[in-house]
Amino acid sequence: MRVARVLSIVAVVAASIGVAVVAAAKPERAAHATPTFARDVAPILYKSCIECHRATMFAPMPLTSYDEARPWARAIKKRVTEKTMPPWGSDMPHGRFRNDPRLTDQEIETIVSWVDAGAPRGDLADMPKMPAMAEGWTIGKPDAIFSMTEDFKIPAVGTIDYKYVRIPVNLPEDRWYTAVEIKPSARAYVHHMIAYTEPHSDQPTRRGSTFGPTNITGVSPNKPGLVFEPGIAKLLRAGHDVILEVHYTTNGAEAVDRTQIGFIFAKEPPAKVHVTGLAVQPKFLIRAGDANAEVKAVTELRQDVVMTSLTPHMHMRGKDMTYTALYADGTSEVLLSVPRYDFNWQITYELAAPKRLPKGTRVEVVAHFDNSPANKYNPDPTKDVKWGDQTWEEMMIGFWGSVVDRPAPAQKEQ
Ligand code: HEC
User: Fold this and answer.
1) Of 56-60, 129-133, 340-344, where does mean pLDDT reach its minimum?
2) Residue nearest to atom 40 of ligand 1 (CA)
């Protein structure tokens, strides 16, 4: 977390310097410079694309060299100009979220001119150094590692339904953890995973169980591990197991996966704890064909919180979601707007500046669903839809991560 924050500050500083330099150099640049892959495009891909587009990851093709990227030049131009790559659903200004991967207009323009000029390679001596990518534990050495009890066999082709897998943990006592990471063994086949806890059992988890009671973390490409700030920890309750919601993808060759989850435990009980809050609305009916069904949920905060991240969750008809803080004094403020929700990307929006919300603030979440045939992901526009675990049913949850004072031992964690 800390490193990321420092990096984003560096990026902001670099960006402002960059703007100044570009502005000064513009007339000259326009006269002679056609962007080349080595000098101009590779740095953009290294910064914004290869976390997913490299051999060990799940995106369909690697983009780490000229030979890999050249055949995709047109597709790259299309995806960056329509802004569907890198994936991101919010329209809020750059700088608001520290994991915002969006390209700047200048970067998009560089890619477009490169493609329009025939995608020249340039001088390989100009190539930037490949950034080091973490392929092991990124949080440091875990104190405890728990593992799936069986291999999951991934077929060569086809789509795989979401899997819900129990990882037995069953600690004899509550433990506080300061860092957690999910590590699939077949990373190239994992689109994303979401981990939460459930009371221990010897049975497999019921298929399609909902999240809870404690959402732990997720794994998606831009979120390798979760490390809390010093003095903050999260509770791993005694007698609970981790349940993973897993979205595997296929890529032409069979594989097996046995995912692990690793925790680093706090040396002492923390002063502040990380909890997951949510506004949820299980009662709704989305009519067949309705292109803009609105569903609302509100949660009133029972204590002061510092909100650190927001994670909208809907299924395939989910269209947009907006979180608004309604303050006790009658004022309000939009915390997150996601006009382009995409079920395929379970994105957590991490606030660059964590947001203090006083007790009594109401967090209102408004979502819209598209149950019309125009929604290309819609499994069946002729059906009315209600809440349900299955992907062809719907959900409406606005999750957030927050930091609060450690509750007295008797109080339950949210
Ligand atoms: C968070 C992971 C991730 C990041 C970051 C990312 N991609 Fe992708 N990309 C994917 C996945 C997964 C797909 C396949 C699914 C899809 O098409 O949406 C894809 C698809 C694509 C495609 C379409 C391939 C095809 O089959 O037509 C292009 C082009 C592309 N990405 C380019 C880029 C570029 C350029 C960047 C950086 C500016 C980038 N991507 C960043 C994960 C990512």
Assistant:
1) 56-60
2) 85
